């Protein structure tokens, strides 16, 4: 995905090289983020980083890339998106789970990943993506199938 400097701005929130986390192959999907140390509930782990782009630019890049159903976009709800695929960090590899152990908290200049409960060494981090799409086409919706394996899995990454 390409964006011009004019269309993007790196998120202001930084993250240090957190030795409590590692990125490796996930049994759920692609890469995942795993705890290398015990993480207490309520802990801010890292920020979601990447270039800030307009929603229009994100849609154009998505269409051009042909990666149906897969992006590293985090919609800020104000017409801008953080593109974790461009200058992003480990947060972009946190997978969806229907029984998440982390959540996101956004304000005007950063998106934080925060633990919802204690997380043991070796556990994968999950957030509930609660995605919203404006398409009722079953083929399009099928792109968002969930593979988390949780007992309460709703079968989709889309919001209920």
Molecular structure report:
By secondary structure, the chain is mostly beta strands. It has one domain (9-129): SET domain (Beta-clip-like). The chain contains 2 helices and 11 strands; from the N terminus they run E-E-E-E-E-H-E-E-E-E-E-E-H. The protein has helices spanning 55-65, 138-142; strands spanning 9-10, 21-25, 31-35, 44-47, 51-54, 73-75, 80-83, 95-96, 102-106, 111-115, 126-127. One of its GO terms (molecular function) is methyltransferase activity. It is found in: Chromosome. Residues 142-158 form the Post-SET domain. Residues 19-130 form the SET domain.
Please specify the SSE layout and strand pairing.
Elements: E1 9-10, E2 21-25, E3 31-35, E4 44-47, E5 51-54, H1 55-65, E6 73-75, E7 80-83, E8 95-96, E9 102-106, E10 111-115, E11 126-127, H2 138-142
Parallel strand pairs: 8-11
Antiparallel strand pairs: 1-5, 2-3, 4-10, 5-7, 6-7, 9-10
Main location: cytoplasm
Domain SET: 19-130
Domain Post-SET: 142-158
Quick description:
This protein is mostly beta strands and 160 residues long.
The largest sheet, given as strand count, sense and whether it forms a barrel, is: 4 strands, antiparallel
CATH architecture: Beta Complex
Distance from N terminus to C terminus (CA atoms, Å) equals: 30 Å
- Secondary-structure content class: mainly beta
Task: Assign a percent range to the helix content.
Answer: 10-25%
Overall 3D shape? globular
Strand line-up in the sheet with most strands: 1-5-7-6
Beta-strand portion reads 25-35%
Number of distinct helices:
2
The structural domain count equals 1
Average predicted local confidence, pLDDT = 86
What would CATH call the class?
Answer: Mainly Beta
Find the CATH topology.
Answer: Beta-clip-like
- Report the C-alpha radius of gyration, rounded: 16 Å
The CATH superfamily appears as SET domain
Poorly predicted ranges (pLDDT <50, ≥5 residues)?
1-16
